[in-house]
Amino acid sequence: MASVHLLLLLLLLYSSASAARGTHSPAPPQPTPHLRFKPTNGQFKILQVADMHYADGAATKCQDVLPQQLRTCSDLNTSAFLRRAILAEQPDLIVFTGDNIFGFDSSDSGRSLNAAFAPAVSAKLPWAAVLGNHDQEGTLSREGVMRHVVGMDGTLSEINPTIMVSEIDGFGNYNLEVGGVRGSGLGNKSVLNLYFLDSGDYSTVPSVYGYGWIKPSQQYWFQITSRQLQKAYMSKPQPQKESAPGLVFFHIPLPEFASFDSSNFTGIRQEGISSASVNSGFFTTMLEAGDVKAVFTGHDHLNDFCGELTGINLCYGGGFGYHAYGKAGWARRARVILATLEKTEKGEWEAVKSIRTWKRLDDKHLTTIDQQVLWCKKSTSKHALIT
Ligand SMILES: *[C@@H]1O[C@H](CO)[C@@H](O)[C@H](O)[C@H]1NC(C)=O
Ligand SMILES: *[C@@H]1O[C@H](CO)[C@@H](O)[C@H](O)[C@H]1NC(C)=O
Ligand SMILES: *[C@@H]1O[C@H](CO)[C@@H](O)[C@H](O)[C@H]1NC(C)=O
């Protein structure tokens, strides 16, 4: 019954939204993206930070560390790990996938947010954040947290898309475009698309227990945005044959994260998949859109795997924060995502050729583990170098 209702809702939403489309067509994608691939190496690197659970800094003690580590461990260790990871990886963008602060233990949410994101701000790196299920438990609501975040230095986060700002569920649904190398043939196009969504906190439907989910309104926004981006990419000038790859970031894993076991994922699963107890269909929506190659979530701190289901990789970041539950002796970790462009014989940078990922552990040497290829372009252009 629940799925029938959801379908009806989706249909209703569709018809009203397509009626609205006739009156005001959505704005075209931005011609000049904030983010770009580097001309030096044709790369764009993202550092994913999941579940910092930041609260009151030095006064907030660590959870699940070894007994001898307890006395000297606080939120400041989370900040130190973030500074170290930034130095080691030199990312082009940092993405925080929710539970950035642990509102319940924070005496001032604004102050906790400032402290949590401070290493990204002081590194002067662009960063983007979405909400988890704990960010709003302190002095700020979900909207309040997102408003605070978008006011901070260096962030590219947005509260909601201008095309349906009042109709969309949640806060922090937006997309970012990563431009090709400046001056190259694809310098005016988005060659990598990043989507950010609010996966909610808890179900508000009395008959449904557990966590929230990505609502039809958000899926509809994703759908029209993906369609627009693909259209722009495949139109003149420099029309491309296939869509640019898309990466999707949110907090709560989809039920499809439970499709794997150790025979078909890279990483580890040490706890259950805490997705919503209903399936709102976002995986299918992404499959149909066709451009999404990987999804990155947090939420389950002890799971850090990536598994591929029908062409889309479903990845956990792995727990980052020290005031988040974890496993004593099992290092806190971060995920790195690296997209690399294809290069022609003439030395010109083209479209994205591959997307790789690995994790960094917060140990003495920031050990790199679980390197893997998430996606590779199938057809290389005629003039491209085969490397
Ligand atoms: C936390 O930081 C302190 C101070 O730098 C350090 O002595 C301690 O080993 C760190 N603890 C962990 C678990 O990394
Ligand atoms: C990109 O846009 C700039 C500014 O409008 C223009 O000068 C340049 O020729 C464009 N490049 C391509 C490859 O279309
Ligand atoms: C992973 O392997 C298990 C069997 O070991 C299988 O049940 C499951 O369907 C596989 N998942 C995917 C996504 O291939």
From TrEMBL:
Its cofactor is Zn(2+). One of its GO terms (cellular component) is cytoplasm. Its main location: secreted. Residues 1-19 form the signal peptide. One of its GO terms (molecular function) is metal ion binding. It is found in: Secreted. Keywords: Glycoprotein, Iron, Metal-binding, Secreted, Signal, Zinc. Residues 44-301 form the Calcineurin-like phosphoesterase domain. The keyword rRNA-binding does not apply. Pfam families: Metallophos. Homodimer. Belongs to the metallophosphoesterase superfamily. Purple acid phosphatase family. This is Calcineurin-like phosphoesterase domain-containing protein.
